[in-house]
Design goal:
Blueprint (H helix, E strand, L loop, with lengths): L3 H13 L2 H8 L3 H15 L4 E3 L4 E3 L1 H29 L3 E7 L1 H18 L3 E7 L13 E2 L8
Parallel strand pairs: 3-4, 3-5
Antiparallel strand pairs: 1-2
Helix pairs in contact: 1-2, 1-3, 1-4, 2-3
């Protein structure tokens, strides 16, 4: 099975032009870099790099594989960055349910403050004394007062 880490290692070898430089960049032993590239070559069934004791050349197949795989790696890196940004700043809708008296007295000011801090969020505040099915109604957070039944 193809290991994405092997593709990353191969790409760094091509970009740096040597196993030693790639190993330094990736903070791993040169032997590990060599083994990962060899494993990738076995997996794809072609030689990607032509190695001698004094030089390293990318084969035609290696160049093609690098061009295609580096596009995929950039896409994955972009996806990771976007997810990190999304984690860094909360966004989306939070559905809150509370009894009318409690919510009107305690929650409205808190929701206003929360929205000021996290402008990419939306709060749906449902103030009702009716019994709701929290799962069916998609409630994320519910406040209840009094004695609760199962």
């Amino acid at each position: 099975m193809l290991d994405l880490n092997d593709i990353v290692v191969f790409a760094r070898v091509v970009e740096t032009g040597s196993f030693t430089a790639a190993a330094r960049l990736l903070a791993m032993p040169k032997t590990t870099v060599s083994r990962r590239v060899a494993a990738l070559e076995r997996e794809v069934g072609v030689r990607l790099l032509q190695r001698t004791t004094r030089s390293l050349n990318v084969t035609d197949a290696g160049r093609l594989y690098y061009e295609q795989s580096s596009q995929a790696l950039r896409t994955i890196e972009e996806a990771n960055l976007r997810l990190a940004e999304a984690r860094a700043e909360p966004s989306g809708t939070i559905r809150i349910s509370a009894p009318v008296g409690f919510g009107g007295h305690f929650l409205t000011a808190a929701v206003v403050d929360f929205l000021a801090i996290y402008p990419k969020t939306k709060v749906e505040l449902r103030l009702t004394d009716d019994k709701l099915n929290l799962v069916e109604d998609g409630i994320d957070l519910a406040f209840r007062t009094g004695i609760l039944q199962d």
